[in-house]
Design a protein that fits this description.
This protein has 485 residues and is of the alpha+beta class. The protein has helices at residues 110-119, 199-208, 236-241, 256-268, 307-315, 436-455, 462-482; strands at residues 2-3, 17-19, 31-33, 47-53, 62-68, 91-98, 124-129, 155-164, 170-173, 184-185, 212-215, 247-251, 275-277, 296-300, 319-322, 326-331, 339-342, 348-356, 363-368, 371-375, 384-392, 397-404, 418-421, 424-428.
């Protein structure tokens, strides 16, 4: 709710939120919003106010201007129109990276977080309990089953994010026994200053409990193994090569297209890595990046919402990720997570694509083995597409459908609207998926990690460094085999 100059208003009893990442050349104030249970009362200046209502990507954005005379109460009924009902077709939305309390001006609770999620039409929230410096704000909420606020159509889980200052952050979903301590590693001037606890070891501990392990908010800038002026400790390719990663936040608190570039390189090396989405939301902040579900994934897991089945769908790659566009994608009879086996003489496959979005989109593309193979035309409104196209087959590989815009589009509080499916895989005869260039890229990446590991003094003992080097060497050998013709 905003006035002409862009100043936001909210009910007296509501938590006010705003997006701090705004361009002052475009607006005077932060984009302000609040969550509503369906009925809200606000006090605003007399005159015209602009009303904007968002309820996630399955609904159209409602916009209206309302004239409020001096001293007069105005009632405005609002109906938000559905674009689609994905749960009715077995697709359930979730955000795998939310921090219920992490600093912030408010004190959040499971009940209030569930209210925020319902307002965003979000069905699964993974509250990643994590350290804030040397304390763990939500540790008392950890449990191995769903929080009691859960319902048949909403699940709140208390999971874990493991922090390191060097190797990258990982999410641990559905720990079945206990929270992992120490909660962090590589923190200078603490008892956990050593770099020795790699994410590979953390992944093993989590997998021993039956959990899923994923890398979160990966890349804002393109990592360059050839740039020796910047440190490169990020462990993602190491753990993918060693079989320790179950999902990647293709959409997170990061640049989605840059993250996708690294994801494509890993897929080109033959690794099957599903797309997940996690906002890294701090819903107890007044002014910070957007709400839970700002980025979300949809998992095809059946008409009944069940956490174990939902996570199994994630691990199987039956997902798409989005902050607005809704995607449908199939090749032949296969959809996300499936593999198609075709004879060597096959040169093309028939694909069906569909897009619906509540904000305009500039590009809809099929990516094959890291390259745009089909640019799908959009309707005149740039919010819909429905087409059947042919995709070329140039050996074994994979295909994803992605949509994006060239710049930010309110009320999507992100760098730009974006969506991507997980891959559909294609096997041509007995030919493996292989990219010599991409494998060599990761060999150079790990060689940089090895050099930095040898140079570091942040070890308790030489044996810690030596064990780390053995782990890196094991992963490097995997990529070296893939880099040989």
């Amino acid at each position: 709710m905003t006035t002409a100059e862009g100043r936001g208003y909210a009910p007296d009893d509501a938590w006010r939120h705003a997006d701090e990442a705004f361009d002052r050349s475009e607006r005077q104030f932060e984009y302000s919003y609040f969550h509503s249970s369906g009925s809200s009362e606000l006090t605003v200046p007399a005159g015209q106010v602009h009303v904007e209502v968002w309820r996630g990507p399955e609904y159209r954005v409602y916009r209206a201007d309302v004239n409020v005379p001096t001293g007069t109460r105005v009632t405005r009924p609002i109906t938000v129109e559905r674009l689609d009902n994905l749960p009715a077709r077995g697709w359930w939305s979730g955000d795998v990276h939310v921090h219920m309390n992490y600093g912030g001006a408010y004190r959040n609770t499971p009940q209030h977080l569930a209210f925020q999620a319902r307002a965003e039409d979000l069905h699964v929230v993974e509250n990643l309990i994590v350290n804030k410096e040397q304390r763990i704000p939500d540790i008392a909420y950890f449990r191995t089953d769903a929080d009691p606020v859960s319902t048949p159509t909403f699940l709140l889980l208390h999971a874990q994010e493991f922090h390191t200052s060097v190797w990258g952050h990982v999410g641990l979903l559905r720990l079945r026994s206990h929270y992992l301590l120490p909660e962090y590693a590589g923190y200078p001037n603490t008892a956990a200053a050593s770099l020795a606890l790699m994410n590979a070891a953390v992944a093993d501990l989590a997998h021993a409990q039956g959990a899923l392990v994923g890398y979160v908010h990966p890349f804002d800038t393109r990592p360059d193994p050839g740039d020796t002026t910047a440190a490169l400790f990020y462990e993602l390719p190491v753990d993918v090569a060693l079989g320790k990663v179950d999902y990647l936040e293709v959409m997170g608190y990061s640049d989605h297209r840059i993250t996708s570039e690294i994801w494509y390189r890993l897929l080109n090396c033959g690794f099957r890595l599903p797309a997940a989405a996690g906002t890294d939301a701090f819903p107890n902040f007044a002014s910070l990046r957007g709400p839970p579900g700002l980025v979300r994934m949809f998992v095809h897991s059946g008409t009944t919402l069940d956490h174990a089945t939902w996570l199994a769908g994630l691990k199987a790659g039956r997902t798409f990720v989005t902050n607005a566009p809704l995607l449908e994608f199939s090749i032949g009879n296969a959809t996300m997570g499936d593999e198609i086996k075709v004879p060597v003489e096959m040169q093309r496959l028939r694909a069906v694509v569909k897009l619906r979005s509540n904000v305009p989109i500039d590009h809809l593309e099929i990516i094959g083995n890291g390259r745009v193979v089909v640019a799908v035309p959009l309707a005149a409104d740039k919010m819909t597409a429905n087409d059947t196209v042919w995709v070329p087959v140039n050996g074994s590989g994979w295909y994803v459908l992605r949509a994006y815009s060239d710049r930010a589009e309110m009320p999507v509080l992100d760098l730009y609207p974006f969506a991507s499916t997980s891959p559909i895989y294609v096997r041509v005869g007995d030919e493996p998926v292989r990219s010599l260039d991409d494998a060599a890229f990761f060999v150079r990446w790990i060689e940089r990690m090895e050099a930095l590991t040898r140079a570091s003094t942040a070890w308790n003992t030489p044996s810690e460094r030596d064990q780390t080097l053995r782990t890196l060497a094991g992963a490097r050998s995997v990529f070296m085999r893939l880099a040989v013709p």
